[in-house]
């Protein structure tokens, strides 16, 4: 599968079951070379990164915003960090926090399957978001407004006292 630059028709892209299989294949390919950093980068950069982008695009084109989409975004953020691809990581985390917010608002932070399944991951990804903001702030001398939104989300999602978030905020203050 190759990502297309044209606006795709939702009827012509891979449906969720096919995307789920593609994710399983990508994870298996990644696991197969994980012990060899050189091989991993050679394989991951040119081919697998484009595949993750194509999966996210297919999900967006079909307006699939569910537990699977959250899983794809979370995996993609982690992989981008491992591969030190900060711009792509930021793209993924923006979508991820849109989804967190959407599900939080939709289910009111209740114990529904969406919120309970992923609320445990919100502190981890909030910490990454804070640290990314520190990175951007140090690199470009910007980010105050973004940090304001991050802090609002920590309160909204009730994760401001989570150890990962507290640690990230301490790094930011240092």
Walk me through what this model shows.
This protein is an all-alpha fold. It contains 8 helices and no strands. The chain has helices at 16-33, 37-61, 67-82, 86-107, 113-119, 122-140, 144-156, 163-173. Helix 1 packs antiparallel against helix 2, helix 2 (37-61) runs antiparallel to helix 3 (67-82) and helix 4 (86-107) packs across helix 6. The longest helix is centred in the N-terminal third of the chain and has 25 residues, at 37-61. It is globular and about 45 Å long.
Tag the structure with descriptive keywords.
174 residues, mainly alpha, 75% helix, 0% strand, globular
Give a short summary of the structure.
This protein has 8 helices and no strands.
Query: Helix- and strand-based class?
Result: mainly alpha
Oligomer: single chain
Question: In this structure, how is the largest beta sheet organized?
Answer: none
Q: Terminal Cα separation, in Å?
A: 45 Å
Question: What does the overall shape look like?
Answer: globular
Number of β-strand runs: 0
Average per-residue pLDDT, rounded, comes to 82
Low-confidence stretches: 111-115
Give, in order, the helices and strands: HHHHHHHH
Query: Strand percentage, roughly?
Result: under 5%
User: What's the total helix number?
Assistant: 8
Radius of gyration: 17 Å
Percentage of helical residues? over 70%
């Amino acid at each position: 599968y190759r990502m297309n630059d044209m606006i795709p028709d939702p009827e012509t892209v891979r449906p969720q079951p096919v995307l789920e299989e593609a994710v399983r294949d990508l994870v298996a390919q990644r696991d197969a070379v994980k012990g060899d950093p050189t091989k991993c980068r050679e394989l991951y950069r040119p081919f697998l990164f484009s595949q993750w982008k194509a999966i996210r695009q297919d999900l967006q084109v079909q307006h699939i915003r569910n537990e699977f989409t959250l899983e794809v975004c979370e995996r993609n953020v982690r992989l981008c960090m491992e591969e030190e691809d900060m711009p792509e990581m930021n793209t993924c985390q923006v979508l991820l926090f849109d989804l967190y917010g959407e599900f939080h608002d939709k289910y009111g932070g209740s114990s529904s399957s969406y919120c309970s399944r992923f609320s445990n991951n919100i502190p981890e990804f909030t910490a990454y978001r804070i640290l990314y903001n520190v990175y951007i702030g140090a690199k470009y001398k910007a980010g105050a407004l973004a940090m304001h939104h991050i802090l609002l989300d920590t309160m909204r999602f009730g994760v401001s006292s989570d150890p990962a978030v507290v640690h990230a905020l301490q790094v930011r203050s240092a």
